[in-house]
Design brief:
The protein has about 150 residues and is of the alpha+beta class. About 40% of the residues lie in helices and about 15% in strands. The protein has a four-stranded antiparallel beta sheet, with no helix packed on it. A hairpin with a 4-residue loop joins strand 2 and strand 3. The longest helix has about 35 residues.
């Protein structure tokens, strides 16, 4: 309610039904259903129209969830095509690739357009996460020493 009232302080009464509808149709992850579905389960209501509406609503939600899962899987497959598995051990020498215009504390060059893509190799100190590693950068660099592979 605060979201609606803060932007439209003179018209909050007009937006009250929309806020109520949103609260009643919002999917809660803990209950895995909307409050409307929690109160009116299909087959429980005395009104046939409510039961018909809920079963239709559930069928649409199932189809939407299936379509979203298929789209997510397709996006993951396309994103994984350009990725490769890389694992390093402590003490390995790795090349560091930085954006030349943003990160100039490691190597200042006269012409950034012609700067090399990869800087000199640095020693890998430790593995921080599943895909993040900490490098031994020089003390004058202004960069965080943890990088994603």
């Amino acid at each position: 309610m605060r979201f609606f009232a803060s932007q439209r302080q003179n018209q909050w009464a007009q937006w009250l039904p929309l806020a109520e509808w949103w609260c009643n149709t919002y999917y809660h992850t803990t209950t895995r259903m909307t409050p409307f579905e929690a109160i009116y389960m299909p087959g429980v209501s005395n009104v046939h129209e409510v039961d018909t509406n809920l079963t239709f609503h559930e069928a649409i939600l199932r189809a939407l969830k299936d379509n979203l899962v298929m789209a997510q899987n397709l996006m993951k497959q396309q994103a994984d095509q350009g990725r490769s598995e890389c694992h390093f051990v402590e003490g390995d020498g790795v090349f560091l690739r930085l954006q030349p215009y943003k990160h100039t504390s490691l190597k200042a060059q006269h012409c950034q357009k012609l700067a090399p893509k990869f800087y000199v190799h640095y020693t890998m100190l430790k593995r921080v996460g599943s895909m993040a590693y900490q490098l031994a950068l020089p003390s004058q660099s202004n960069l965080l020493p943890v990088f994603h592979v």
